[in-house]
């Protein structure tokens, strides 16, 4: 592994220099703005996918190359790097900073987990629900970083439980898993277990030199090092994977839940300014069922892989084994260590709820929202207005009792800076600049015309192909970079074949988040992998199933409740008329 890392490090400079040199014939031979913009787009795509440069550094290339190629003026490029998205992100990070600083996330997670149960199956479901809820409002990476220490404490309690508790647990849960799906060689452990069972049943005689002495049976050695039994190891794997996957699933539910949702929303606001159906309320109604369906199916799939198919024991068991009592005690002790809820947590909760209510009611669609109170300025107030207003309050309300010597707000600028993802801000800005350049140069129109033959396929088939492509690419490239690359291509394609652009873009924006396959696919996967309970192949096998569940759920939503909610079956007035055919 170390040799591979050294080899890759030595290849990075070569990729940085060879990529633009190998592609330079494109703008030299085809002296058109489309070719020059395509050259910049391909170079950025290679850099983003290989990450030979930091993502934010690559995002600055349009500011350098667009003026040099005469595509856009430097002042024009600079103006698209900072959009409404960034203001919304600032407000959301203020909320996330306060939640993390005062420990509200731990209280929410522990309350949800203990409320659902502590047997392995319900423990997995509880952590999934808790992570999904937190990731609706916090970044997926922050959510996993907050919850994994709690999970690890539970895992260590399980590993330190007594052998008697293990026997009780086997009777209660029958913690089997699917042998065909496991990677470890367990034949030696199986033979040892069978031998012990035979001795206990009196079928075979133990190897003893003094038969008159009482029989003693030695306990089998620990399974695979630190794990006492195979069931323990499988449960640890299932708990770790459920944390990583549920955080990505929960982030789909709100526009602010993940950067890819925000990039999509800002792209719609920028290039389809008359489109009013993409707002916080509609997105929540669209994606909450997707999140619920994916969580349920993912829990069933992971339970089947790592805890076996005895779902009745997980859902209906009322008697707790000794191990479950130990686990419940750990969670209860951690919750009690938080003490009574502090007034800082209460204020943060109130602002959090108020922010969600104002987002929902700004322009709900089925009734006039509070934005109608300003009829002279329609469309002026956005979700970013709400986020900034309430985020501003965090810097005003004191974090402690007023003191003549010292005054400190709920959050400080230092706290905010520690949580603010500046890299994502630059990355998204670079994506907006790239999208604007493809539009001005005519590249997006040229690509759309080139892909017009896809119009002969059913629209759902075209969308399915797009979802599979982005789901595959996002496993090896940044989610945000993948979104930034594909939105400017798929939107003109939808216009060219006469399909509602949202019909094409929404599934693509959602499927970009399905990076479940590899430890390096996204930060949540990497975090849980570092705890040492998983191998890469564990994640590949589970991730394939989650990818299938995710794509099918998105396509189900697209063909059912999403169509009437967003009028996806008609070509909208706010999109350019290129082809008169509809869905």
From TrEMBL:
Bilayer topology term: Multi-pass membrane protein
Annotated GO MF terms: sodium:sulfate symporter activity
Domain of life: Eukaryota
Record localization: Membrane
Keyword Ion transport found: yes
Family: Belongs to the SLC13A/DASS transporter (TC 2.A.47) family. NADC subfamily.
Chief place where the protein resides: membrane
Ranges where the record places region Disordered: 204-223
Annotated keywords: Ion transport, Membrane, Sodium, Sodium transport, Transmembrane, Transmembrane helix, Transport
Transmembrane regions listed in the UniProt entry: 12-30, 37-65, 85-104, 116-138, 280-302, 341-360, 380-397, 460-490, 502-521, 542-562
Protein's UniProt name: Solute carrier family 13 member 1-like
GO CC, one annotated term: plasma membrane
């Amino acid at each position: 592994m170390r040799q591979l890392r050294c080899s890759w490090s030595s290849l990075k400079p070569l990729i940085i220099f060879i990529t633009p040199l190998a592609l330079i014939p494109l703008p030299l031979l085809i002296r058109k703005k489309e070719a020059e913009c395509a050259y910049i787009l391909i170079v950025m795509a290679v850099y983003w996918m290989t990450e030979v440069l930091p993502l934010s550094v690559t995002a600055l290339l349009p500011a350098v190359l667009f003026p040099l190629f005469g595509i856009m003026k430097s002042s024009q490029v600079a103006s698209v790097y900072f959009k409404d998205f960034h203001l919304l992100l600032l407000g959301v990070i203020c909320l996330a900073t306060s939640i993390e600083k005062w420990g509200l996330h731990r209280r929410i997670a522990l309350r949800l987990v203990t409320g659902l149960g502590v047997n392995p199956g319900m423990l997995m479901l509880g952590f999934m629900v808790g992570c999904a809820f937190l990731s609706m409002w916090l970044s997926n990476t922050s959510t996993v970083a907050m919850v994994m220490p709690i999970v690890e404490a539970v895992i260590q309690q399980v590993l330190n439980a007594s052998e008697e508790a293990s026997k009780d647990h086997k009777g209660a849960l029958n913690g089997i898993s699917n042998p065909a799906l496991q990677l470890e060689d367990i034949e030696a452990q199986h033979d040892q277990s069978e031998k012990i069972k035979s001795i206990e049943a009196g079928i075979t005689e133990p190897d003893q030199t003094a038969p008159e002495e009482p029989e003693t049976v030695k306990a089998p050695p620990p399974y695979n090092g630190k794990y006492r039994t195979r069931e323990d190891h499988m449960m640890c794997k299932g708990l770790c994977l459920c944390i990583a996957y549920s955080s990505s699933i929960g982030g789909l539910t709100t526009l602010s839940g993940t950067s890819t949702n925000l990039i999509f929303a800002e792209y719609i606001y920028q290039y389809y300014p008359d489109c009013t159906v993409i707002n916080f309320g509609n997105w929540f109604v669209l994606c909450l069922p997707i999140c619920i369906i994916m969580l349920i199916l993912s829990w069933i799939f992971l339970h089947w892989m790592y805890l076996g198919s005895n779902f009745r024991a997980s859902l209906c068991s009322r008697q707790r084994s000794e191990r479950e009592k130990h686990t419940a005690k750990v969670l209860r002790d951690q919750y009690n260590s938080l003490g009574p809820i502090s007034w800082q947590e209460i204020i943060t909760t109130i602002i959090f709820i108020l922010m969600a209510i104002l987002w929902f009611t700004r322009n709900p669609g089925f009734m006039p929202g509070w934005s109608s109170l300003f009829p002279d300025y329609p469309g002026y107030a956005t979700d970013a207005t709400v986020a900034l207003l309430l985020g501003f309050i965090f810097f005003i309300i004191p974090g402690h009792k007023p003191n003549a010597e010292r005054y400190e707000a709920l959050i400080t600028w230092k706290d905010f800076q520690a949580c603010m993802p500046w890299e994502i801000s630059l990355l998204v800005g670079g994506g907006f600049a790239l999208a604007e350049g493809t539009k001005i140069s005519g590249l997006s129109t040229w690509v759309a015309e080139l892909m017009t033959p896809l119009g002969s396929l059913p629209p759902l088939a075209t969308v399915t192909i797009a979802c599979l492509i982005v789901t595959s690419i996002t496993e090896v490239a940044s989610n945000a970079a993948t979104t930034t690359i594909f939105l400017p291509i798929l939107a003109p394609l939808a216009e060219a074949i006469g399909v509602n652009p949202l019909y094409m873009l929404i599934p693509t924006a959602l499927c970009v988040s399905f990076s479940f396959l590899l430890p390096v696919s996204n930060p949540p996967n990497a975090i849980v992998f570092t705890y040492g309970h998983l191998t890469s192949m564990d994640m590949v096998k589970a991730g394939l199933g989650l990818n299938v569940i995710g794509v099918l759920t998105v396509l189900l939503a697209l063909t059912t409740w999403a169509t009437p909610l967003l009028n996806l079956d008609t070509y909208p007035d706010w999109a350019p008329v290129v082809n008169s055919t509809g869905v």
